[in-house]
Write a structure and sequence with these properties.
Elements: H1 27-32, H2 36-68, E1 74-86, H3 107-115, H4 118-128, H5 130-133, H6 149-159, E2 160-165, E3 170-177, H7 180-238, H8 243-274, H9 280-303, H10 317-355, E4 356-364, H11 377-405
Helix pairs in contact: 2-11, 3-7, 4-7, 7-10, 8-9
Length: 406
């Protein structure tokens, strides 16, 4: 009996299940693939909703507030600069007078800092009541009274724009208010306070420039008074107005006496030649000679020329008076010269201070607005949309970056 081998049927290749090694998707993979498009659509919806919430909604809210709730603001502008008038002075032609040193800091810089300080805010608030003026607008852009002076100064920085051109030294002012008249009043008041500040600076500069010269002049005047009073006391004590003139008079008398003595001696010699010693004329001539010599001795004693007093000391009375008078006159002449120099220096200081006169010149007077220019509705809405879009884009990119790292 013949046996026949039975061969089991071979399944077709197409019917055989593929091995996972050959890249055939497994059962789990076959279940995930249908869910991919759904998750992608879900992410797109999340991005769209986030765009609406983070970009569109803030932009619409800002636009709605700016166009329906924000109060119009009016701007009053003006432009001014500090001018220094330097006219030529007649004192400069005297020569030998040095110029005065100027300020080391710019007056415009000082004024710029003053316009941003709390001092001017307090002064203008006292006059115009800034808290009331700036609290009449919408809740977002108006001032909320009462607040402190620091709060008002911070709000001042928002409503008062000060622009300084360092190249030309021109200051431009832009003042905002909810009423055009209020803006104009605030601008005018700022200009008045600025002018007052420049006037104070000019007065201080003039005082500093002339203070030292004034002190020197006062000292010179006192020295001259003392010297003249000393000369007056000397004249009252000696009853001599000018010892130089008196000594010339005394010298004239002495010269006359010496001439008379010489003539009498000559006459005596002639008499002795023609007459005897018993002649009364000789005796009379001798007595005349004795009298003239005595008078000459007294006059020489007054002048202090080689004579002595009764105690054996040199007379020198008139010579001492002349020496004292000359010393007093030297002191007086020196005081007069000092006074003249001090007066010239003081006049030069005053002329220099007056020559450098500073004042505030407005080339653009405070304007009265006819239409509101604030707030910038289109610009603020566009900026809100731009920055919201940028923030939203950064957040979306960060979210995708974190997803790809997983």
């Amino acid at each position: 009996m013949t046996r026949t081998a039975t061969i089991p049927p071979v399944a077709p290749v197409s019917a055989m299940p593929a091995s996972p090694v050959q890249g055939t998707p497994s059962e789990g993979t076959a279940r995930i693939r249908p869910a991919g498009p759904a998750r992608s659509r879900q992410r797109h919806w999340v991005v769209l909703v986030s765009f609406l919430v983070m970009v569109v909604l803030p932009s619409m809210l800002v636009g709605w507030y700016l166009w329906t709730q924000a109060t119009d603001r009016y701007v009053s502008s003006m432009g001014f600069s500090i001018r220094t008038e330097e006219a030529e002075s007649a004192v400069e032609f005297l020569g030998g007078i040095t110029g005065l040193s100027g300020s080391s800091s710019s007056d415009t810089d000082v004024l710029y800092n003053f316009l941003k300080s709390s001092e001017i805010v307090a002064k203008i608030d006292t006059d115009l009541d800034l808290r009331t003026i700036w609290s009449q607008g919408d809740p977002l852009f108006s001032y909320h009274p009462p607040g402190t002076i620091e709060d008002l100064t911070d709000y001042w920085q928002r409503m008062v724009g000060v622009y300084y051109d360092t190249a030309t030294g021109i200051l431009e002012l832009q003042v905002q208010a909810f009423d055009p008249e209020d803006a104009h009043k605030i601008t005018s008041r700022i200009f008045q306070e600025s002018s007052a500040l420049i006037n104070r600076l000019s007065a201080i500069a003039r005082e500093d420039a002339t203070a030292y010269a004034r002190e020197e002049l006062h000292t010179a005047v006192e020295r001259l008074k003392v010297a003249r009073e000393a000369v007056t006391r000397f004249r009252n004590r000696t009853q001599i107005v000018d010892p130089a003139a008196s000594i010339q008079s005394q010298m004239g008398i002495l010269s006359s006496l010496q001439e008379q003595l010489a003539q009498t001696l000559i006459d005596l010699d002639i008499l002795r030649q023609i007459t005897s010693e018993s002649d009364p004329r000789i005796q009379q001539a001798e007595r005349r000679i004795d009298v003239i010599q005595g008078r000459i001795a007294e006059e020489r004693a007054k002048l202090g020329i080689g004579s002595t007093t009764g105690d054996g000391e040199e007379g020198g009375v008139f010579a001492d008076l002349v020496g004292e008078y000359e010393r007093l006159m030297v002191d007086q002449q020196f005081a007069e010269q000092t006074y003249t120099a001090a007066m010239a220096a003081y006049d030069a200081a005053v002329a220099e201070a007056r020559r450098q006169t500073r004042y505030l010149a407005a080339h653009v007077q405070p304007t009265l607005a006819e239409r509101p220019t604030r707030p910038y509705r289109v610009e603020l809405t566009a900026l809100t949309a731009l920055f919201s879009f940028m923030i939203w884009g950064v957040i979306v990119l960060m979210a995708y970056a974190l997803r790809d790292r997983r």
